[in-house]
Write a structure and sequence with these properties.
Order of helices and strands: HEHEEEHHHHHHHHHEHHEEEEEEH
Oligomer: single chain
Number of strands: 11
Shape: globular
Number of domains: 1
Strand content: 15-25%
Structural class: alpha+beta
Number of helices: 14
Distance between the termini: 28 Å
CATH class: Alpha Beta
Largest sheet: 9 strands, antiparallel
CATH architecture: 3-Layer(aba) Sandwich
Length: 411
């Protein structure tokens, strides 16, 4: 797009945003951590344009029953906002403190706790699972002896995809399920193949508990929630059930609400976290290195390194266009989207759908939490980065134009 076209595009965005603000839906609640007057023109435009995209999805009935969104950039929380309602049949709007189950976004918390343990020299990435869990065995003795922490967090245990998901959904405890892993023939040696897991991923819990001398619940509260100020976050069914400000899960958009289930709370590292968008805004900024007193960039760096490269036509990546490569690190997917490296994860559980991605290079990220499925959710992350790249490329070209004009005047 030429410079003139970009300026026209920017002007239109600002005009549309002005119109949008004058007729904003009564079911949306906008909360920003700073007055928008303290943001740059590009940051304000980014907020307004992504907000417009979401509002348009609600108008077109492509959005879920309710959702909440956070956008961060350069350590600032640009946006944390609720859209829609907590439950069909009510007018109870979602706000920045409304709690959702975040499903598999929980895996990122587990990998960070492991990174903290490694940083404190309580574990290493090569720590063997068997040394921390006496009841653990795999089908193959050599695999039992060699499986380590890095294999667990990178989903490269050698077990088939989603091993014993049926036992998780049947309500069995982690202690009941771990010994049964010995029954399952392996598809590869540890470290060779990525096959997504929930039960096997949760082997990290007893490893952390033994190494750190604390329960998983205490670890996540004392190492992450409390120091970051994540006031609405929890990791148990009781907290979710008793909270009055919860987005209720729905079978599909605006159909009917589902009963809250305690499924997957037996695998806390895989899917146990409950949080609001205010909590997740703090979390994503910490992952980008803006809370070094809690999480240093050196601590975080290993969990972002790609361990397994996946085929571009795998079931997950089909939902995005223009993906150049995908992989898995530890608790996070790695995605090259239109030449831009992203750290990404999504989650789906009992009616909840969540999406989260951030760019270390550009120091920005987005989180979307929802209480039902919709077509828009599958495109919510690439839509954000399309808008981001368009707007900040405008800023770059505008700045370059000023510099070039200055140089021409000098000559």
């Amino acid at each position: 797009m030429k410079f003139g076209q970009r300026c026209y595009f920017l002007a239109n965005i600002i005009f549309i945003s002005f119109l949008l603000k004058s007729c904003e839906s009564p079911q949306s609640t906008k909360i920003t951590a700073l007055p928008q007057s303290q943001f740059s023109i590009s940051e304000s435009t980014l907020i307004d344009e992504y907000d417009f995209i979401i509002q348009e999805q609600f108008r077109l009935k492509n959005a879920p029953t309710g959702l909440a969104v956070a956008i961060v950039k350069d350590g600032k929380i640009l946006l944390q906002k609720g859209y829609g309602i907590k439950q069909v049949g009510t007018t109870d709007s979602i706000d920045q403190n409304t709690v959702f189950r975040i499903a598999s976004l929980s895996k990122g918390f587990a990998s960070v706790l492991a990174a903290i343990a490694v940083n404190e020299k309580k574990l290493t990435w090569d720590s063997r699972v068997k040394d921390y869990i006496p009841s653990f065995y795999l089908f193959d003795d050599l695999a039992t002896k060699s499986l380590n922490l890095k294999h667990v967090l990178s989903h490269s245990t050698g077990l088939p995809r989603h091993t014993f998901g049926n036992l998780i959904e049947a309500g069995q405890s982690l202690e009941q399920m771990i010994p049964r892993l010995e029954e399952v023939p392996l598809i590869a040696r540890p470290g060779q193949v990525m096959a997504y897991q929930n039960l096997a991923y949760s082997l990290v819990q007893p490893m952390l508990e033994k190494a750190m001398g604390m329960t998983y619940d205490s670890l996540i509260k004392t190492k992450i929630y409390e120091p970051l100020g994540m006031k609405n976050a929890s990791i148990d069914f009781e907290s979710l059930f008793e909270n009055e400000n919860v987005a209720q899960p729905h079978n599909s958009r605006n159909s009917y609400s589902m009963q809250q289930e305690d499924d997957y709370f037996s695998v806390l590292p895989a899917a146990g976290v409950n949080a609001s968008i205010a909590d997740m805004a703090l979390w994503i900024n910490a992952l980008l290195g803006h809370h070094p007193e809690v999480l240093s960039k050196e601590t975080l760096e290993p969990i972002y390194k790609e361990n397994n490269i996946l085929p571009k036509n795998n079931p997950w990546s089909r939902s995005w266009d223009d993906v150049e490569s995908v992989g898995y690190a530890m608790g996070w997917r790695t995605v090259n989207y239109k030449g831009q490296d992203l750290i990404y994860h999504g989650g789906y559980l009992n009616g909840y759908r969540t999406e989260m991605a951030f760019s270390l290079e550009h120091d920005t990220g987005v989180v979307i939490l929802s209480n039902s499925f919709s077509r828009f959710l599958m495109q919510s992350v690439p839509a954000y980065f399309d808008v981001y790249n368009e707007i900040f490329e405008i800023e770059k070209i505008s700045t370059d134009s000023v510099v070039n004009q200055t140089l021409e005047n000098k000559n």
